Structure formats: C-alpha cells, structure tokens
Amino acid sequence: MKLTKRMLGILLLLGLMLVLVACNNSSSDEPTDENDSNNSEEANGEEEQVTIVYARGVDTTPASEAVIKAFEEKFPNIKVEQREMPSDTGQSHDQYVTAFSSQSTEIDVFNADVIWPAEFAQANYALELDRFIEKDGINLEDYFPGTVQAGKFDGKQWAMPQYTDAGVLYYRTDIVDTPPETWDDLIAQAEELKGEEGTEFGYLMQSAQYEGLITNAIEFIASYGGEVVNENNEVVVDSPETVKALEKMKEVVGSDFVPSNILNFMEIETENAWIEGKSVFARNWPYLMSSSNDEERSSIVGNVEMTTMPAGDAGSASALGGWMTMINRYSEHPEEAWEFVKFISGPEGQKISAVEGGRAPTIEALYDDEEVQAVSSLFANPEFREVLQTAVPRPVTPIYPEISDIMQIEISKVLTGDQSAQEAATNMQTKMEAAMNE
Ligand code: GLC
User: Where is the signal peptide (predicted)?
Assistant: First the structure.
C-alpha cells in the first residue's frame, strides 16, 4: 500500500503521542522541579497554595517563629510547617539519615549542622543550590568565607549559611569584676566566686558524651596549641598539647565548682541552670544571651555578659559551630523551598534571628546594624568578628560522624577517670588514622 502524505502525518502524530504518554508514565525517581498539576490553577489566575515542611532542632528562643511569620507575610502562597527535631545534633543527624536514605519527601527544608553538608552531599540527600544562587544573584561574598565553605563539597554549594556559632564565655556582671583571661584564672575565679548572689556553681559546660563534648574539647585542645587533623588532612591529635589540654579539661570537670552531674550536661541543661541563676560562668553559644535576657524565663536579666573563651598556653580558641539551610533532594516543592532558604539565610531572616534569638549572623554587614549590635556588647565589638572568623572548625570529611564517635568515646573515658589523657590521645590517633584510610 502506498502511504499518502496524510496517512504519514497521522502515523507520525500517533507515534509522537505514544512517546509522550510513555514519558509521562515513566514515574522517574528524579525529583521534578515543577508541579505539573499546578498549571491549570495558574492559568486560571489563582496563586497556588503550597505548604512546605521545615525541620529544625529545638529552638528555645522566639526566633524561628518570628522568621516564619515574616516569611509567610511576604509570601502568602507559601505556608511553612515546622518539624521539631531533637536538640542533640547527633540524634537529629541520625533521624535525617533515616528519612533521607529512604528518599522520604516529607521534609522540604532543614537546618543542617556545619558538620553535615559534606556527608549529606556525598550521600545524595540534598539539592545543589548553585542554579538557584545564580538565578537570584545571591552574592556569597557577603558571607563570612568559612561559613560558605562549610556548605561546599565537590565544588558545589549544598547549603546556605544561616547563623554561625563560636563558643563564648558567659559571666555574671553582678558577681565578676574582671572576666578570666586564662583557664587557670577561670578555675581560680570559679572556685572563689561560687556561692555569691545565690549561685551554686562556678562553671557550666557541655561534657555529656555527644557532639557538644567535641566542641568543648576542641576549644581546650586548640587553646593549648593542639590540633586534631591538620591542613594536609593528617591526623595529628596525639601530641603533648592535646594531652595537656585534656588534663585541664579533666581538672575542670572533676572540680567541685561544677554540678556533680556535669557529665550529663548538654546545651539545654547548661541553659536551664544558667538562666535560673545557678552559676557564675558558663560556656555556650551566642544564643544564650537571648535566653539570659528573656524576662519570662530568666532570673538574671541584665546581669549577663559574654566574652571570649579562656586562653591556654597558645591563646583563646572557640570551636566553629553553626547551622546551614539545605533542601531535601526529594522535596516536591524545590522552588518554594528555595524561596524559604533564601529568606532565612538572607539579610532579613538573619537579622530577625539575631535580634530575636541572639544568633550570630553569617553576613558580615549585619554587624553594622544598630539593632544587631544592641543584642550584646560582643556583637558590637569588631574583635568578635575576628573570633567568628578564626573559630576552629571540626574536621571536614564525609566520615565526620565516625571521627566524632571516636573522640566522644576516648575523651569521655578521660573525664570519667577510666583512662589517662595520654591514652586517649594515642587511641584517637590510631583509630582516626584507621577510619580515614579505610
Ligand atoms: C551548636 C553548634 C553546632 C554543634 C552543636 C554541638 O548547635 O552550632 O555546630 O555541633 O552545638 O552541640
């Protein structure tokens, strides 16, 4: 049979339709950028209402609520539902890994500890943000370089910096004349001043066996000149400096000016005891300033200042912490998720979280803002920007959870008196080398 032009046309059309149907049905695993079902609504001129789920750790300040309120006012078509994760970053981490490794679409946006992006990027849990950043002309140079770096892996940006953390020393201005400069000075003042103005303790810190212990330990280690992993990615933790630092840490934890259950203390226990007015000094992150001045919860409003951490032989050191915002690779609303990420990590969102939550911005220019400066004298002090920028990072590697576990176990054994500081240093060295060379 001879095909007429018309029949050929019909056949081609049928073929094309088959291909289209096949494409639509091949329920691909890949996340889609656009939600096709929305098109008709948009064509009708109605703005589609989307709810995104934002997961974050416990926030004892009003900051998260305030940021979301401001966002929803600006983007009335996007509703943000919050999902509260545990306050212990390690526990949160494990819950995210469970959800994301099964490609759950439940969470759209999540807060990520600075130690996670490398691991989450490698495991394919997150969406690369570069195309959004480019599209919206976000200038990453406005941010502290270290905080941008923490969200980078394999040359791509996986996370936007939301706020940065550096360990700081809190003290009671109604008790302390001159805040301590060194660890020995802190020990002396904590012993001497404990009991004044109704306090029970001289010092509070985070020494439970969890991630916060690592940040406290890193501050001791760096202040005595030690390092865990050097810039060439070599494990160098077994050093006389580490040993001296861990001995000092043990001296503090074993003293009678800390609570007898200090080995159960995380940030939340520190915060509760501190705002109840129970201690002269405390180590925590900048947010505690906001809780300290919260009229409803705190009994020490107006009597708190923060300063840099006490120095060891090599000076004062703060551990670098902080939180980034990431998008679940399998989010069904990546565009709206990005809108929220952009807001919360942008100048408006960061200012709200500084003013309402005492969180340290990652955008340098915000430190010139008067309302941000009013949060604490440290925020107004240009030297604090230095502290933030020179804070000591934890090793950046996709196997960070393993490294952290090794340190948690070995350092805890020193604090409980089950091994010496030297034994811990030797064991950490051997175990970390093995983990990194696997
Ligand atoms: C803070 C820091 C985070 C750190 C955690 C440890 O949340 O921002 O980086 O891992 O404390 O408890």
Answer: 1-22
Ligand 1 mean position, distance from CA 267 (Å): 9
Chain position carrying tokens 């849990």: 125
pTM of the shown model: 0.87
Q: Decide whether 50-164+320-392 matches 166-319+396-437 in CATH topology.
A: yes
- Tell which atom from ligand 1 comes closest to the C-alpha of 114: 9
d(C-alpha 400, C-alpha 405), whole Å: 9
Name the fold adopted by 166-319+396-437. Answer: D-Maltodextrin-Binding Protein; domain 2 (3.40.190)
Residue nearest to atom 6 of ligand 1 (CA): 212
Q: How far, in Å, is the centroid of ligand 1 from the Cα of 94?
A: 15
- Spatial distance between the Cα atoms of 417 and 404, rounded to a whole number of angstroms: 20
Superfamily of domain 50-164+320-392: Periplasmic binding protein-like II (3.40.190.10)
Rounded distance from Cα 192 to ligand 1 centre (Å): 30
Phi/psi for 326 (5° steps) reads: -130, 165
State residue 6's pLDDT score. Answer: 55
What percent of the chain clears pLDDT 90, i.e. is strictly above it? 83
Sorted by where each begins, the domain ranges of the chain are 50-164+320-392, 166-319+396-437
Nearest-atom number in ligand 1 for the CA of 215 is 6
User: Using a 6 Å CB cutoff, which residues line ligand 1?
Assistant: 89, 113-115, 165, 211-212, 215, 267, 285, 321-323
**pLDDT tens, 186-234?**
999 999 999 999 999 999 999 999 999 999 999 999 999 999 999 898 9
DSSP string, 324-375: EEEEBTT-S-HHHHHHHHHHHHSHHHHHHHHHHH-PBPSBGGGGG-HHHHTT
